[in-house]
Amino acid sequence: MATWGDYISLTLTLSIIAALVYGVLYLNQSLQKVVTSTKDHLHNRGIDVSKKGASVKTKTKLGNREEYFDATQRGIVKALSSSSVGHDSLDRTRSQDSKSSGKSSRSRT
User: Fold this and answer.
1) What spatial distance separates the first Cα and last Cα of the chain, rounded to whole Å?
2) Are 47 and 55 in contact (CB under 8 A)?
């Protein structure tokens, strides 16, 4: 037969388990609210997030093919001008050429 201590231990154990389950459910609900709030905020800024991915709404529309090509060209030029690939090797080649010929690279045409 169970004693009072057994009943108290059972009640205490069940209370701890119930508190842990409640804590997990509360945490899950809080995280869902944060996710929903963040999605709403991003939606107001023009970014829609779903299970399939994210989509960004732009304010400007390119009117014709020429504007599209101009915008693409500006993007490529910006990317190339901000890259540093090839700059060091070009300077090294110029300095070696000027040393071997005895002339500066600016005097060449």
Assistant:
1) 107
2) yes
